[in-house]
Amino acid sequence: MVDPERDAFSLFLPNGVLDWFTVVSSAKTAGTLQIIFEEKNIPPITEDIRGCHVESKGFKEITVGDFPVRGRKTMLLFRRRVWKVEGREELLKRDIQLIWEGTQLEKEFAAFLKVRS
Length: 117
Hints:
- The protein is of the alpha+beta class.
- It contains 3 helices and 5 strands.
- The longest helix has 10 residues, at 107-116.
């Protein structure tokens, strides 16, 4: 089913964000717009862990600078979920590339700034 509001909102966000994250809140001040996303509880199951008990163990937050919106600095706060697989030490996380390597900037925004300099 087509959701026009979701489709319109996705035009302003990094590609694919709404596939893996839910918007949980937003806030704006005179100079800043902040949108907070929470990763959906869909663990990245691979063949080697299929059938194992997987449990969400909380979040790690990252803040990403993005293109300004209506003259406000835009900050996207992503609450990245981690999961514990029964019988394993390491935590499981989804490999979603949100930032340009070596920066805290969204990939497309960082590429735009690089071209402009």
